[in-house]
Each structure stands twice: as structure tokens, then as C-alpha cells.
Amino acid sequence: MSSITIGIVQAGFNDLPAENAGKAIDIVRKNYKEADIVVLPEYSMLNPLKIGDPRLVYSYSETPLTSRYLTEMAKLAGELGVFILVHFIEKTDTPPLTMSTSIIVTDRGEAIPVYSKMHLFDAYGFRESSFFKPGDAPGKIISIKGVKIGFTICYDLRFPELYRITALMGSEIIIVQAGWVKGPHKEEILDKLASIRAHENTVYIVLADQTGDMFVGRSGVFNPWGYRELDLGWREAYVEYTIDASLISEVREKLPVLQQSKNKWEIRLLMQ
Q1: In what helix (H) or strand (E) does residue 209 lie, and over which residues does it extend?
Q2: CA–CA separation, 204 and 77 (whole Å)
Q3: Whole-angstrom distance, CA of residue 103 vs CA of residue 98
Q4: Which structural domain, as residue segments, surrounds residue 45?
Q5: Residue of higher predicted confidence among 144 and 261
Q6: 1: pLDDT strictly greater than 90
Q7: Which of 2, 155, 240, 263 has its CB surrounded by the most CB atoms within 10 Å?
């Protein structure tokens, strides 16, 4: 298997898409070296939990084909020759609800939706379902440098079946875009869930989380043994990390849980 270098953006973002695009572009442009894909955290376009008004969030939302936000990201991707995974607040035809969508902007300027968040954060006193329609299927699997990548978003980490399905669909790395809200023991919970999801599915988990007054940070990389290889702590940061995908084959040979999984029938149903 190949190696792949992933740039992780950990930062705090505000409520205005234009300002958030400018901040993300500035961080990446100043720090980019050689990443194959750069990952922005959840809510890096705008944060509905801070805005609080679904109608105002809807007014800020955009469609992929006409998005000014994605246009700016496409310029950066073309300039650097890199893929960028953005978190996008996608306009729907059922206002005031939008969709929480991961979109890959390619180095050629294409915007490819890869996943819409299935499990909405209706917990700890928050109600994402006031803002979003849930996605209805696991995400696409994208190959970059010969490494197969799947996608999930934040609260999804609490639903192991999605990760098992995404792994059985071929993922070797699963990227998690997160806005993990602060609270008692929330850092430890995030760390443990990401570690478990990596180990039980023998995949790498790459986590890009927001930080600041509302979110815990702790972005990083978890290998198929469940070991955290990288921890960005709580400060704003941009780190490029190279993953040697050969470890995936080594772990899967010793721990063949995907081959032994009783859920393979679910994949056959999904692929029909």
C-alpha cells in the first residue's frame, strides 16, 4: 500500500462564511508543505449551534454549484495542487432545514459531495435536527494515492455500525470532521471513541476538530491498533502527517475482524 500525507486544520471559526473561508485559506496557504489532502473541521463554514436561528443558517447556506465558499476553496486547491475536504452547509428545498455535508474540492476545482451527516446531534441539550435534514446513506469511498478513504462527521462516532459498514465498503482511512462540544469528560470520550472505532475496524481514523470556547480540539490520528499517533492538543494548529498504509494490511492479517464480520450482508444490500 501507498503512503498518504494529510493536512489537519484545527481552529475556531465564527458565524460568517466569507470570514471563515478567509481564515481557513490563510492557515493553509501559510503552512502547507506537501499534503495530498487537507481536512477542515465540522462547522468551519459556519456554526449553527452558535447562530441558534435555523432561518438565519438557511440564509447563509449555499448549493454546491453556485457556492462562493466552494469557489474560494477551489482557487486554493488549484493554487496548491491539493484536495481539500470542507464541511458545507448545503441548501435544500425544505427551508429552514439544510444538510451537513462533507465535500471534497479537488486540485482541478471540482466539488464532490461525499457524505451527509446521518446522526444528528440531538443530545446534551442541543438539537441539530432543528437545522439539518439527516443523510440517508454511508458516504462514498474515494481513492487518493491508492489509499481508500471514507467519511463521517462528529456525532457519528457514537454509532459503531456506520464505521463497520464504511470499513466493509473498502475504507482504509476514515476521516472524521468534528465540532466536539466541550463538557464533562468530553475530551476523554472523544479520544476513546476514536481509538475504538479505529481498532475495531482496523482502519486509520483521522480527526479534524474545532477548538476555541465551544469545542475541545484534540484533533489527531489513530492507527488500526487503536493507538493515537498524533494529538494536536487544544491550540489552533495546522499539521501535516504521513500515514504508512502498509500497517493496515499488517494489522488486518493479524486481526481479521472485517473478514469475520457478520454484517457483510448489510454491504451486499447497500451495493444492490
Answers
A1: strand 204-209
A2: 24
A3: 15
A4: 3-271
A5: 144
A6: no
A7: 155
Whole-number CA gyration radius for the chain: 17
The pairing of strands 83-91 and 98-105 is antiparallel
| pLDDT above 80 for 269 | no
- Cβ atoms within 10 Å of 227's Cβ, excluding its own: 11
What's the CA gap between 97 and 118, in Å, rounded? 14
The CA distance from 248 to 250, in Å, is 5
What are the pLDDT digits (tens) for 83-129? 999 999 999 999 999 999 999 999 999 999 999 999 999 999 999 99
**CATH number of the domain bearing residue 96:** 3.60.110.10
Cα–Cα dist 196/193, whole Å: 5
| Backbone phi and psi for residue 239, each to the nearest 5 degrees, phi listed first | -130, 135
pLDDT value at residue 260: 87
- Can you tell me the distance from the alpha carbon of 163 to that of 143, in angstroms, rounded to the nearest whole number? 17
- 21-53 pLDDT, tens digit per residue, is 999 999 999 999 999 999 999 999 999 999 999
What is the 3-state composition of the chain as percent helix, strand, coil, each rounded to the nearest 5? 35, 30, 35
Q: Structural domain tally of the chain?
A: 1
Q: What is the pLDDT of residues 217-254, one digit of tens each?
A: 999 999 999 999 999 999 999 999 999 999 999 999 99
Q: Are strands 37-39 and 83-91 parallel, antiparallel or unpaired?
A: parallel
